[in-house]
Amino acid sequence: MNEQYDVIVCGTGLKECILSGLLSVKGKKVLHIDRNDYYGGDCASVNITNLYKIFRDGKEPPKEYGHNRDWNVDLIPKFIMANGNLVKILLYTRVSRYLEWKCVEGSYVYQFHKGGMFSSAKGQIHKVPASGSEAIKSDLMGLMEKRRCRNFLIYVNKYDQKDPKTMDKFDGQKQTGAELFKKFGLEPNTIDFIGHAMGLFLNDNYLNEPAINLIERINLYADSMGRYGDTPFLYPIYGLGGIPEGFSRLAAIHGGTYMLRTNADEILMESGKVVGIRSGTETAKAPMVICDPSYVLNLDRVKKVGQVIRSICILQHPIPNTKDSNSCQIIIPQKQVNRKSDIYIALVSSGHAVCPKEFLIAMISTNIETSNPENELKPALELLGPVKEMFTSIKDLYEPFTTGKDDGLFITKSYDATSHFETSVDDVMELYTRITGETLDLTNLPPDEEDQ
Predict the structure, then answer these.
(1) Residue 176 CA to its chain's centroid (Å)
(2) Which of 70, 390, 356, 348 is nearest to 234 (CA)?
(3) Do 364 and 345 touch, CB atoms closer than 8 A?
(4) Bridge partner residues of 46 (DSSP)
(5) 280: left (phi over 0), alpha (psi -120 to 50) or beta
């Protein structure tokens, strides 16, 4: 360890491993450490014994759960957009060859229906339409609204900022998302599922931002639908932990050094700049350190921006009203349950080799808004049906308030509550640009082995 490096990376979460791999490919001498004895950090996939060790204070899991080899439970549940930037990075680096993938079977959205003279108020989940033809068939909307939604999706699909003929006197760079919805006269519930279940926006701020952001998000969703299957999301066999491991392997192939069970007891600074780290009695020198927020909580470098609650639920049945899907995503938009942030459900099963055949794993996540966070999961739990066992965690969310350019200390953001990796990859790409001064070019990708 007592050597000179170009970069020291602390933590083996997905973001840190992607950056470690990318920088190693660029010829940087990288030292990558983690205080844990496993890869993945907060993004790790753990067996049933380690799940009990984390959440049940080391108690032994029931024998009915079977062998450890049958369990790979994600600590942070997220799916991968089939045509999103994470897949593009996997192809760019060829880490995709280390992983096996399977499509998520369904994508659903929750909608609250007001009671009428002959019916009571209740919430229902519906398949998310991704095209004009699917909008016509959707039971999310009435007949006239279906046509308006169909026209909206057709317009968005054809929209090209460089071709005025496709814009129909609407400028997505200058006009807002709210103005685009108004152009087609869409109803509030329709706007809600388009923005949150297709655009995957965290909140409603996008309505006041340039409409091009909304257009690009919807087209990403639609393009992902046709990439590998009938849904826009992918999930790796054996869980998410294989992704950071794949990037770790990439870095090791290019000369990176990995040390687990090694903590960064101190980040060494001289004249306000990073010069390395200390671990116990050993030191490693480098002009640059990349780390997750947990390594700098004792330094004045990050700010708390909220909390997220996550609950891992072991089921013995598919989620009702999902056509017996063994894997799916359900988004509960904020307004449908009078919240300020969405609630996410991700369901996986033995088809992804994460649990025995007689079980399924549903993972719920959302931002905490009240003093009773467990109660905030109630809308999601009501959709799941009977739950055999729950493992719930509450995590603080941190963001750096320094860029790293002045002191050489580059810090990733905490993982948000979303059920996809798009915001996480945005953070990686921004950091990559700050670190290297270059934009990661994901346009000219090697051919996908699946397409050959």
Answers:
(1) 26
(2) 348
(3) yes
(4) 73
(5) left
Q: Residue 240 and residue 353: Cα distance in Å, rounded?
A: 11
CA 439 to chain centre: 21
CA distance 380 to 392: 14
Count the helix, strand and coil residues of the chain and give each as a percent rounded to the nearest 5: 35, 25, 40
Q: Report the SS3 class of residue 417.
A: coil
Phi, psi of 337, rounded to the nearest 5 degrees: -130, 25
Establish how many alpha carbons lie within 13 A of residue 251's alpha carbon, considering only the half-sphere containing its beta carbon: 30
How many angstroms separate the CA atoms of 180 and 372, rounded? 37
CB atoms within 10 A of CB 134: 17
Cα 254 from Cα 93, distance rounded (Å): 12
Number of other residues whose CB lies within 10 A of the CB of residue 280: 9
Reading the block at residue 163, the tokens are 């071709």
The set of residues, in sequence order, having a beta carbon less than 8 Å from that of 222 and lying 6+ positions away, is: 130, 131, 153, 157, 198, 232
The vertex-360 CA angle with 358 and 364, nearest 5°, equals: 160
413 three-state secondary structure = coil
Two tokens, residue 300 = 């004045």
DSSP SS3 for 300: coil
pLDDT per residue as tens, the chain (452 positions): 789 999 999 999 999 999 999 999 999 999 999 999 888 888 899 999 999 999 998 799 999 999 999 999 999 989 999 999 999 999 999 999 999 999 999 899 999 876 554 445 578 899 888 776 777 888 888 889 999 999 999 999 999 999 999 999 999 999 999 999 999 999 999 999 999 999 999 889 999 999 999 999 999 998 998 788 778 999 999 999 999 999 999 999 999 999 999 999 999 999 999 999 999 999 999 999 999 999 999 999 999 999 999 999 999 999 999 999 999 999 999 999 999 999 999 999 999 999 999 999 999 999 999 999 999 999 999 999 999 999 999 999 999 999 999 999 999 999 999 888 988 999 999 999 999 999 999 887 776 655 44
Q: Compute the distance between CA of residue 310 and CA of residue 368 in angstroms, rounded to an integer.
A: 10
DSSP 48-114: HHHHHHHHSTTPPPPGGG--GGG--EESS--BEETTSHHHHHHHHHTGGGG--EEE-SEEEEEEEE-
Can you say how many angstroms the Cα of residue 77 is from the centroid of all Cα atoms in its chain? 7
- N-to-C CA span, the chain: 43
Farthest-apart Cα atoms in the chain, separation? 76
